[in-house]
Specification:
The structure holds 2 protein chains of 2 kinds.
Chain A lengths: L3 H7 L13 H28 L10 H13 L2 H33 L1 H15 L3 H12 L3 H25 L3 H9 L4 H12 L1 H26 L5 H10 L3 H32 L8
Helix pairs in contact in A: 1-2, 3-12, 4-5, 4-7, 4-10, 4-11, 6-7, 6-10, 7-10, 8-9, 10-11, 10-12, 11-12
Chain B lengths: L5 E13 L5 E14 L4 E5 L6 H9 L6 E6 L2 E2 L7 E4 L11 H12 L3 H14 L15 H14 L4 E5 L7 H18 L2 E6 L2 H7 L2 E6 L4 E7 L11 H15 L3 H8 L4
Parallel strand pairs in B: 3-8, 3-9, 6-7, 7-8
Antiparallel strand pairs in B: 1-2, 1-4, 4-5, 9-10
Helix pairs in contact in B: 2-3, 2-4, 3-4, 6-7
Classes of the chains: A mainly alpha, B alpha/beta.
Chain lengths: 281, 268
């Protein structure tokens, strides 16, 4: 109990403590914990690049990269790219969440659906989304649809697998309690099975997001669709604009990181972690 | 005392277990059990582990299907779970995503009790289990004893006809266990619920019950029924209490525990 941030973080006080709220210094700590190691990496990078051991065109300094990033940001190019990439990602993950969660829940509750879906699910899981991309392009052409379809394909399988696993592993005593308390059929499903499997479902969403994010960049490169971070990097290659390429890669990393840490991690903190269904280390 | 509240007649339960490689085996969990519970009575089922006492309770809860025989609550057959019974589980089985308050209101909602009354009812039962200050807490913050108190309040809140308790204090330490037994007796004296309680603790059975049903195994059936004629509150160290304990101990010991082990072994 040395430090208020610690108390907030571990949520100790086993018995009486009511709702635990994060203090401002908790957020400060959270940001610092993540930022300091990254800053050190950038520092080393800057040093190495300035030594010019590697040709500057291949390995520009951090300052060059960031000034390029800034330049392209105020010109609006990067903002546009990010907006496009995120729009594609969100749209496809949305499809994947609806489809994957529904399928997973059905599989977890219906024996026949489970039997029918498992073999194709495992088959498709073995295929990297990018492998079907050329085929998808044949269907949809070099369009947004092709990208969104591929991403949704990729993400929905992860979500489906995790949701199904989550429902299957719900503690039988919780199901019994739900039934004893008068829940059956749909009520049992919404009031017990779904919340009880939420830890795995959220894991599925995280996996779905990160898999889709990876495919997105590759898809934008292949589809050469005129916008998007992946496209920007690919195009910069043609002009040997290595600073643009590095800037693009950094943006991809930062965005993916923020999606995970801010969006999905928050979802977890406000649900399963608050309920103690997820252990805090 | 005319009609029993709960009547179990010639109950038999055979489990068919698939071992995952396409082979199935059968285990007879309950051979032939007949027993009656009167309105407002506190009856405990005791027996060596593996004698099918929990299975019996799960059938009464409607969570397991019986193989044959009759189970009647107020003359109506039990064949599925229902809100005329409250169940308290050994593993507490509280919903971690609901606060203490919402865990208790779950059954009220399912029973369709008007929400204007929830507040009064939940407060009443929280007070009964002495958890008034913990309404907004999520279960994972509670100690084992507190969790089970929520479990009891949750099962009582929608006023079931019969309270089924499956080794509810089995997972608790001795001290907490004693406290909860005392609390349960107080609750029972206040509400006069019909309670069917499963345990393997002799002392617990003598402390709580009006009657103790001793189950034996191979074939698993009622061996004896012991009536405990002690006034409440009971004192665990009084001479008469210890005599009952001894008597019950002997009744259970007559059953060689290896017999139960054999029942538990699947034969393919």
């Amino acid at each position: 109990m040395q430090n208020p941030a610690d108390t907030a973080a571990t949520g100790s006080a086993p018995d009486a403590a009511p709702e635990v709220r994060a203090t401002p210094s908790y957020y400060l700590h959270a940001i610092l914990d993540n930022a300091v190691p990254l800053f050190l990496v950038l520092l080393v990078w800057e040093g190495v690049a300035r030594l010019k051991i590697i040709h500057p065109a291949l390995f520009p300094t951090v300052t060059e990269i960031f000034s390029k990033m800034w330049e392209l940001t105020i010109e609006g190019i990067f903002l546009r790219d990010v907006a496009y990439s995120l729009a594609r990602l969100l749209l496809s993950v949305l499809f994947a969440i609806v489809f994957g969660t529904l399928c997973g829940l059905l599989m977890g509750t219906n024996r026949w659906v489970e039997k029918i879906i498992i073999p194709p699910m495992n088959f498709f899981l073995a295929i990297p989304g990018i492998a079907i991309f050329p085929i998808v392009i044949l269907w949809f052409g070099l369009t947004e649809k092709a990208i969104v379809f591929t991403l949704a394909f990729e993400a929905s399988l992860s979500i489906m697998l995790n949701t199904w696993g989550g429902v299957k592993s719900v503690d039988i005593s919780l199901i019994n309690a739900g039934r004893a308390l008068g829940a059956s059929g749909q009520a049992l499903f919404y009031k017990v099975l779904f919340p009880a499997s939420l830890p795995s479902i959220i894991t599925g969403y995280r996996q779905g997001f990160s898999r889709a994010w990876r495919i997105l960049v590759a898809g934008e490169m292949l589809a050469s669709i005129g916008s998007g971070i992946g496209f920007r990097i690919f195009e910069a290659r043609a002009f040997l604009a290595s600073d643009v390429m590095y800037a693009g890669v950094i943006i991809i990393g930062v965005l993916g990181f923020l999606l995970e840490r801010v969006a999905l991690r928050s979802l977890e903190i406000f649900t399963v972690q608050r309920w103690g269904m997820l252990r805090r280390l | 005392m005319s009609q029993p509240k709960l009547l179990v007649r010639n109950l038999r339960k055979v489990f068919h277990i698939e071992d995952g490689f396409g082979r199935t085996s059968s285990i007879t969990a309950i051979e032939n059990v007949t027993l009656e519970v009167m309105e407002g009575e506190f009856v405990t089922i005791i027996g060596p582990s593996g004698c099918g006492k929990s299975t019996l309770l799960m059938i009464l809860a409607g969570l397991y299907e019986k193989t044959s025989g009759d189970v009647l609550l107020d003359g109506a057959p039990i064949n599925k779970p229902g809100l005329d019974r409250g169940v308290v589980f050994q593993e507490f089985a509280l919903f971690p995503w609901l606060t203490v308050w919402n865990n208790i209101s779950f059954g009220l909602k399912m029973k369709g009790i008007p929400s204007s009354e929830h507040d009064r009812i939940i407060r009443h039962y929280l007070k009964m289990v002495k958890l008034e200050d913990f309404a907004k807490i999520y279960p994972h913050r509670l100690s084992g004893g507190m969790k089970q108190r929520v479990g009891i309040a949750r099962a009582l809140a929608y006023s079931p006809e019969l309270l089924l308790m499956d080794e509810p204090f089995g997972a608790l330490d001795a001290q907490t266990r004693t406290n909860l037994q005392q609390m349960l007796v107080e609750i029972w004296l206040e509400t006069r619920k019909t309670i069917l309680f499963v345990t393997h603790s002799v002392r617990e059975a003598v402390y709580l019950s009006d009657r103790i049903v001793v189950l034996g195994c191979r074939p698993s059936q009622v061996r004896t029924i012991l009536e405990v004629q002690l006034p409440r509150p009971r004192h665990r160290l009084s001479e008469s209490f210890l005599r009952y304990e001894e008597e019950l101990e002997e009744l259970i010991a007559q059953e060689p525990s290896e017999a139960c082990m054999e029942t538990g072994t699947p034969s393919i």
